[in-house]
Amino acid sequence: MKKIRNLSESNFLKLFFVFISLCFIVAAVCMPDRATIFEGLWKIQITPCRVTTNYFSVGGFAATFLNIGLVAVACLILFLSLLGGYKRLDVHIAEGKQSLYCVMVLLLQAGLMAQVFTNDVFTAYVFIEILTIASCALILAKGTKRAVVGTTHYLVFGCMGSGLFLLGVCILYGITGHLLFPQMKESVQMLVEGGRYIRPLSVSL
């Protein structure tokens, strides 16, 4: 117990997350119907479903199969980036800002994963804003004048882009009355087949 109290904040967090991960692994191994769990996971990946992001299929597989691939690639890129730049972290980022920098990296990764798995166009907009904030914090963490100028430029263009995205979302919601992708897809398809709201749909898309 004394050793745990004497741990630094970073080492304690590492130990905590390792402990949580081991708990999940032990819980998965101790489940009585492990074969059913794996069978269900595979079914989720290959079977389209309207409830989750599996509302469309790609190459005969549900969208989750593609989403897992995209998230795996994003995680691999993040891991390789951190592995390559870890030794020079002290050079570019001040010691007091390194913890915040790592938190923003994880927040950025979480935003990217949420963009992949979201089933709601407004949720996608929310995470675009989170990505913008996290990206600005990462750029600003260096603390130089060029970083401040770059953060300002990124924030301005990011707000313009997210504002246009929100405008498109408002137009689509006003026309279709839906924010979920499956229902929105059906409503847009019906409107296009009926020849209604073609220009607003073109502007929003």
Low-confidence stretches: none
DSSP E strands, number? 2
- Separation of the first and last Cα atoms: 58 Å
Output mean pLDDT. Answer: 76
Question: What percent strand?
Answer: under 5%
Q: Structural class per helix/strand content?
A: mainly alpha
- Helical proportion, percent range: over 70%
Strand order of the largest sheet: 1-2
Q: Number of helical runs?
A: 10
Describe this structure in words.
With 205 residues, the chain is mostly helical. 78% of the residues lie in helices and 2% in strands. It has helices at residues 2-5, 9-30, 34-46, 63-85, 89-92, 98-117, 121-140, 145-176, 181-194, 198-204; strands at 57-58, 61-62. Strand 1 and strand 2 form a beta hairpin. The chain starts with a helix and ends with a helix. The model has no long low-confidence stretch (mean pLDDT 76).
Brief account:
With 205 residues, the chain is mainly α. It has helices at 2-5, 9-30, 34-46, 63-85, 89-92, 98-117, 121-140, 145-176, 181-194, 198-204, and strands at residues 57-58, 61-62. Strands 1-2 form a two-stranded antiparallel sheet.
Q: Descriptors for this entry?
A:
single chain; mainly alpha; two-stranded antiparallel ribbon; 10 helices
Write the layout of secondary structure elements.
Elements: H1 2-5, H2 9-30, H3 34-46, E1 57-58, E2 61-62, H4 63-85, H5 89-92, H6 98-117, H7 121-140, H8 145-176, H9 181-194, H10 198-204
Antiparallel strand pairs: 1-2
Helix pairs in contact: 4-6, 6-7, 7-8, 8-10
